Structure prediction request, 248 residues.
Amino acid sequence: MLWNPSDIVVQAPGDIRYFNEHQAVRIYLRNLPHWRQEGVTYFVTFRQADSIPRSVWEEMNREAQEWTDRIVNHVKEHGELAETIALEWEAFQRRQWILSEQITDECHGSCLLADDKVRQIVVDALMFFEAERHTTHALVVMPNHVHLLVTPIASWALDMLTQSWKGFTSRQINRHLGRKGPLWQPESFDRIVRHETHFERVASYIMANPTKAKLTGCRSTVGIAEACVKASPDSLHEWSPTFPGDEW
Prediction:
């Protein structure tokens, strides 16, 4: 893992498994949809509990619940989800993701992770079982949220990993700061990486997040696996223009 690198170009390793529409997938809903498929790579985000103002968070949850109810009722009535509704649902999720990113990048809340020692607790926890429970391709720890590009290993489901990371870091950070109460939002965002271009866009987004958020000073930690860095400058390329949220 390379820490806080600069002037790199991202590449997708050849052994990454992407979403396979022909392979079994498990889907469950809370406020967000969560898709699970064996052996794939995920883009994961978890945020501090106070990173989004309460009024905004409550409105986002209300809209998400309305969508969940609409989907459940439609499937009960028709036996499956119509493609038009599925596309509308995905567009709604994209809008919510973009809004969440814009707000968290504004550094609302206590931003406990802006502190070097607190941020290191998170980094150490994320990397402690590297190559044993998961393979981490890229990560960024921002002042109030975390992004990961990660592949669970063997029997370690993504939910087990996120629960372990969030639970351990919450206890350690609270102890370190002498505080009590929840540190993280109860639900994490995750999405299965769809293909090689999606992988590279997500990794590039993670690497550029501090710049995008216009952070000053050492208030973030970025890491990328060496296997995700192009080895030769001869292979440099520029991304074609994308619309906001394309890395979602």
Observations:
- Confidence is low (pLDDT under 50) at residues 235-242.
- The chain has one domain: 2-50+110-234.
- The first strand starts at residue 2 and ends at 3.
- Strands lie at 2-3, 26-29, 33-36, 42-47, 134-141, 145-152, 189-192, 221-224.
